[in-house]
Amino acid sequence: MRASLIQIGVDEDESVEARRARVASLVREQAGADLVVLPELWTTGAFAYESFATGAEPLRGPTYEAMAEAAREAGVWLHAGSIPERGEAPADGGPGAEGPLYNTSLVFSPSGVLAAAYRKIHRFGFDKGEAVLMGAGDTLVTVTLPDTTLGVATCYDLRFPELFRGLVDAGAETLVVPAGWPERRRSHWTLLAQARAVENQAFVLACGTAGTHAGVPQAGHSIVVDPWGEVLAEAGPDEEILTVDFDPARVARTREQFPALKDRVLGLTPPTV
């Protein structure tokens, strides 16, 4: 199976419309790949908080349309990264009411049909930024491809292993993580990607952004990790297309040869004080 991770450079001087057209062209150039992955919030920048509301789109907005067409023309499964989604306004919100914002990932089939949408569960920022500007998703999402089942997560989710255990329990074999990860925590990015691969005996495809978002330099270094935690490929800091061939059947072989997942003990009682 061939995957292409497109590590997009987000330049604040490039309009969203120009970037959308450029990215659609990059996706079309990946014809021959099985799966193409884009980063988190590449239309606005993951740290450009002031742009979330103005750059928000309905689920089936211009980015949806452009990426659906690009996936269809390239004939690839496309994880189109995530967009700032404007949800539907509440029925009782009154005139001019706006719906909530979500950090929403879109996955398209090779025919350009939306196969899944995932609203990011863990929002970054603690008491500011994404954590207060965007609503939280509440549903785990997997997508069945001909050769593997994808488990979908986004950026900050990478720090929460229980989410990935849930995806594995739902059948995931390849964990796809688009991100806008900052350079100052790049060592965590690599460490966590490898940890999620080892503990879940799954492939991890983690696609980041390049450039600077609202003054925050991005880590880049998109990475593909195998079920033993070995790095199969890693990008540099700049815009780059990272293409790697991998064998999805290695997941089943790894889990059979080293069946650690069978030894999980669930429902442990916390100690009493």
Describe this structure as you would to a colleague.
The structure is a single chain. With 273 residues, the protein is α/β, with parallel strands linked by helices. It has one domain (2-88, 100-260): Carbon-nitrogen hydrolase (Nitrilase/N-carbamoyl-D-aminoacid amidohydrolase, 4-Layer Sandwich). Helix content is 25%, strand content 26%. The chain is built from seven helices and 15 strands. The strands form three sheets. Strands 6-5-4-3-1-15 form a six-stranded mixed β-sheet. Strands 7-8-9-10-13-14 form a six-stranded mixed β-sheet, covered by helices on one side. Helix 1 runs parallel beside helix 3. The mean pLDDT is 96.
Quick description:
This protein has one domain (2-88, 100-260): Carbon-nitrogen hydrolase (Nitrilase/N-carbamoyl-D-aminoacid amidohydrolase, 4-Layer Sandwich).
Element layout with pairings:
Elements: E1 2-7, E2 9-10, H1 16-28, E3 35-37, H2 52-55, H3 62-74, E4 77-86, E5 101-108, E6 114-119, H4 130-133, E7 141-144, E8 149-152, H5 161-169, E9 174-178, H6 186-200, E10 203-207, E11 210-213, E12 216-217, E13 223-225, E14 231-234, E15 240-245, H7 249-257
Parallel strand pairs: 1-3, 2-11, 3-4, 8-9, 9-10
Antiparallel strand pairs: 1-15, 4-5, 5-6, 7-8, 10-13, 11-12, 13-14
Protein name: Carbon-nitrogen family hydrolase
GO molecular function: hydrolase activity
Pfam family, one: CN_hydrolase
